[in-house]
Design a protein that fits this description.
Helix content: 25-40%
Largest sheet: 2 strands, antiparallel
Order of helices and strands: EEHHHHEEHHHHHHHEEHH
Shape: globular
Strand content: under 5%
Length: 414
């Protein structure tokens, strides 16, 4: 049965309908309209093909790297290891310069926009929340099929050089019959159709709600009245929400939507939090290199927009306890330290940033000077150096305990 969700734009979407829209390739290829039963059959065929492709390393130039190599289902479709960045390319030795994000709970991420207006009163569009939405850390694509292109052609990921090369990999891996079943008997003779069908298959697979957005965490069970938070978890939730404490919910929304939809634990906004430079990333050995997120280098359309430099999309915190690296550069390696960074960035910057030769702290050292003006200073970042952090050690533990309730797969006791 299709699951209904409401996008940030306000439209109700059924997962089955989303998948059906992807089948336009089939009707175009065959020249025939599809019945409802045929749409359902084709959707399932695409999902089955997409799942097979997702786990198949033969789609890469090396023949050894699959989508699942970096997006492991046992780790919420994020990396299973603790590397800040993953290795790929034709020889599997080329490092990226961003941490691999999870592929879960992307189904209602809105398309990227520079100006996002939202309030509890849908008639009031007076507040511009700025750059919002899109997939990947910098929001540069809006659809799953577009996102799938990125690793397929990245020099430090799957390393393919052309669409035709991807098509050849798909056919050599033995998917010709499945392609013909979906896109017509001549599909396997047209590299363009092979390539497009493969992308659509990956997109449909990632629309499977039971796999990618089951809403099966303990917190979901609590919201459904089927479980209760422990005292520590409940304290953590209160601290998470409180504006004068963690203020986490200001970006990682923890309440149901006004229409009853489950909380996504992100507002999809792009924000600069000034995480420390990760000197373990090879590209960062060049002092002139900066990963500036929305304004480059991977995203090209806002290069030169200084007001967008250093902004990265706020990820969901669902399944965050399964991660081993945090933030866009993977420079922090424990969930507790990630929370601690938020409350100590301003009060004790010397714990996070290096010192200059004169002994001063080089705050926000992963950004050029001009981009430092974009750093978010909302609570808990509004405190002065030497002040008490918004959360003490015990309270940090409480917040971490709550975040652990966001892991999928919880089974309420009878």
């Amino acid at each position: 049965m299709a699951m209904r969700l409401k996008s940030r734009g306000g439209e109700w979407l059924e997962v089955g309908a989303v998948a059906a829209m992807l089948l336009l390739i089939t009707s175009a290829a065959t020249g025939q309209a599809l019945s409802r039963a045929e749409v359902q059959r084709q959707t399932q065929a695409l999902a089955t093909l997409g799942k097979a492709l997702f786990f198949d390393p033969s789609l890469s130039a090396s023949g050894k790297m699959a989508c699942s190599s970096c997006h492991d289902p046992g780790h919420a479709f994020g990396p299973a290891n603790d590397r800040s960045v993953q290795l790929g390319g034709g020889d599997l030795h080329q490092p990226g310069f961003r941490a691999v994000p999870s592929l879960k709970y992307l189904q209602v991420v809105p398309p990227f926009t520079e100006h996002f207006f939202e309030s509890e009163d849908e008639a009031d569009e007076s507040i511009d929340n700025g750059p919002t939405g899109g997939l990947t850390w910098n929001g540069r694509v809006d659809r799953g099929r577009e996102q799938a292109k990125i690793p397929l052609f990245s020099d430090f990921e799957m390393g393919n050089k052309s669409e035709a090369e991807v098509g050849r990999h798909v056919l050599r891996a033995g998917y010709g019959k499945a392609l013909a079943h979906i896109a017509g008997p001549k599909a396997d003779s047209d590299p363009a159709i092979v390539y497009r069908t493969a992308l659509k298959a990956l997109e449909v697979f990632e629309q499977d709600y039971q796999t990618f957005y089951p809403y099966s965490s303990k917190y979901d069970a609590v919201l459904a009245g089927k479980a209760e938070l422990s005292p520590q978890e409940a304290r953590g939730l209160e601290l998470f929400n409180a504006p004068e404490k963690g203020n986490c919910a200001s970006c990682h929304v923890s309440q149901r939507g006004n229409d009853g939809t489950p909380p996504q634990f992100t507002d999809y906004g792009l924000i600069a939090v000034g995480v420390p430079r990760n000197r373990d990333i090879p590209s960062n050995k060049d002092p002139a290199f900066y990963d500036l997120g929305l304004c480059g280098p991977l995203r090209k359309d806002f290069i030169g927009r200084d007001d967008y430099c250093g902004l990265f999309r706020t990820p969901t915190l669902r399944n965050v306890a399964l991660r081993k690296v945090f933030f866009h550069n993977g420079g922090i390696h424990s969930l507790r330290d990630a929370v601690r960074f938020y409350v100590e960035r301003e009060t004790h910057p010397e714990r996070w940033y290096p010192r200059r030769p004169d002994g001063s702290v080089d705050k926000y050292d992963d950004l050029p000077e001009a981009a430092k003006a974009n750093i978010n200073m909302d609570p808990p970042f509004d405190r002065k150096a030497g002040a008490e952090p918004a959360l003490n050690s015990t309270e940090i533990d409480d917040v971490v305990a709550f975040l652990q309730t966001l892991t999928d797969g919880y089974e309420p006791s009878e």
